[in-house]
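TA notes, week 10

Several of you asked for a full example with nothing omitted. So below is the full record: structure tokens for the whole chain, then the designed sequence directly under it. When grading your own attempts, check the secondary structure regions first.
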């Protein structure tokens, strides 16, 4: 192996090591001391055992959200251009309802009656 190849591999391994270290730090901050499974920065909040959390506040079909309990994570999603599957909490568990959006479904939420 010539010195050019050695330099290439040295630089490559250096950046791979940095990537692993950063990945470790990110994993630690997600699973570390945030408490109750909370993850800051727009990621998923997981409630403590026995609880349920709904990011959009319930059956709010106009807002994309997710519902999570100790066993299930469910993200609101459009089945097609008309129907939305909406996750919500009831009795401490995640439930899903199918909802026909009157003005269509896009971006995993029902569209408003008028688009400005």
């Amino acid at each position: 192996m010539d010195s050019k190849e050695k330099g290439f591999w040295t630089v490559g391994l250096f950046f791979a090591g940095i990537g692993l270290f950063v990945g470790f730090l990110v994993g630690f901050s997600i699973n570390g001391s945030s408490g109750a499974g909370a993850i800051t920065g727009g990621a998923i909040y997981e409630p403590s055992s026995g609880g349920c959390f709904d990011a959009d506040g319930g059956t709010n079909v106009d807002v994309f959200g997710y519902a999570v309990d100790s066993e299930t994570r469910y993200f609101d999603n459009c089945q097609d251009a008309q129907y939305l599957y909406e996750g919500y909490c009831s009795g401490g568990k995640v439930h899903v309802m199918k909802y026909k959006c009157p003005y269509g479904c896009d971006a995993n939420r029902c569209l408003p009656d008028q688009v400005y």
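Strands lie at 52-54, 66-69, 73-75, 77-78, 83-90, 93-100, 105-106, 109-110. Use that as a sanity check on your answer.
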